[in-house]
Amino acid sequence: xxxxxxxFLLVAAMALGTAVxxxxxxxxxxxEALFGNGTGAALNGSTxxxxxxxxxxxxETATEEPSTDDPLVEDEMxxxxxxASITDYPTLQLGDRDSADGVAYIVxxxxxxxxxxxxxxxxxxxxxxDTQTAIExxxxxxxxxxxxxxDAATQTKLFSDxxxxxxxxxxxxxxxxxxxxxxxxxxxxxxxxxxxxxxVIGSASEKAISDFKxxxxxxLPPLATPTPAPTPEPTPAPTAVAGALPLVNDILLPTAEPExxxxxxxxxxxxxxxxxxxxxxxxxxxxxxxxxxxxxxxxRRVQTRLHQLGxxxxxxxxxxxxxxxxxxxxxxxxxGLSQSGTADEATQRALFSxxxxxxxxxxxxxxxxxxxxxxxxxxxxxxxxGYNEQTRVMVCTTGMNSSPTPLGTYHSYGRRSGEWHWFSxxxxxxxxxxxxxxxxxxxxxxxxxxxxxSQTSVNNLGRKASHGCVRLSVxxxxxxxxxxxxxxxxVIQE
Length: 494
Prior knowledge:
By secondary structure, the protein is α+β, with helices and mostly antiparallel strands. It has helices at 2-16, 30-35, 58-61, 73-76, 105-116, 129-141, 152-158, 178-189, 203-219, 271-277, 297-308, 322-334, 345-351, 455-459, 474-483, and strands at 247-248, 251-252, 366-371, 376-382, 387-395, 408-411, 414-415, 420-423, 428-431, 434-437, 440-444, 446-447, 470-472, 489-493.
């Protein structure tokens, strides 16, 4: 017991002495959950938050440091519990988050990763991709199965004595650092890395390195073998000169400090890769023009870069379709290029450059506004520069005053069910249920248990009468179902 208490106190001291980067993000929107680091529940419709809602900061969930005299110090790392041992670790994984009024499991985990040098971001209580990557690195370096999941075995090792752990250092491979960030930045710029530029070689970075090497080996000539430098002639020992600095152990003083040597962060980052990264060998970002209808690796590379910059919401699939063209046209518009929707040489050189601008939002075909004041749904279409084309106006029914439709900006999680959606609480059906946030849906007017249209529900279009959902005519509900992909922005306002 004493050994565990001492271990925890050492960890706490390290954590308190670890600087947290200023301005680190502490909250994740529903849109980021869906397209960014995958940490929310917007995709499965269980929960979602409005874009404007901030998550509690790490400081808000922090607890007072326990007294060193307290016999329950080891238990208090995960909250005060007379029954539970510190070894009773909950399994934590991507998408989990601490609740504002619960035990700060993830913050505790993140603080330990920060103290050991595996996590570079702040402890925000959200198990995002940065935390997953840090866990992957810890597992890799400590002989555990690399899953990115903080299971009981991983946490037992993580919170064990410092002497038993392998931690990042210049002497250890597979560690984070500025060298890795430099490599990741270039791989992202060239369209190979879709994960975070976080200074840690995780599964996403390993795949990017592998894809890059495969690409250069297939399309670029092999690197020339460097000619070994000639062996320099030995330099005679210095001699004292009148008026010069004195000799100390046959060395003239003062001596110059040696230049710091940058260490390679992972064995995968070899000399061939670094030759391109350092600019010793030119990497030609353009190989061929691709356009609508094309397929293959070059299309996927363009899509990957568009996705990484926030223009393309689709996952890269190597098929150049209308969504890719739409995203590319917006990129061209933002960079003063001809909006051809074709990835020609000029477009690719801008796209795969360090000066490429990120998009404020993914380019979807439509953006939906629900106006509660006039009980209307307005669908705005993308015109190449923004959502400026009024495409459709729909009469709707929103929530009653006792069960209002929630205001805010959301990224939809799309189709909820098949053609028919059963509401067990209200003993009725509706058609074409489309998830906005949580249990709030777009759906058609109501049908009885035997699927007969409710005329009362039809008559209520244009007034507040629902339990929070947005009811539409059958045709309008079907139109949203057919034309608005998952992730479409829905703004609900008064």
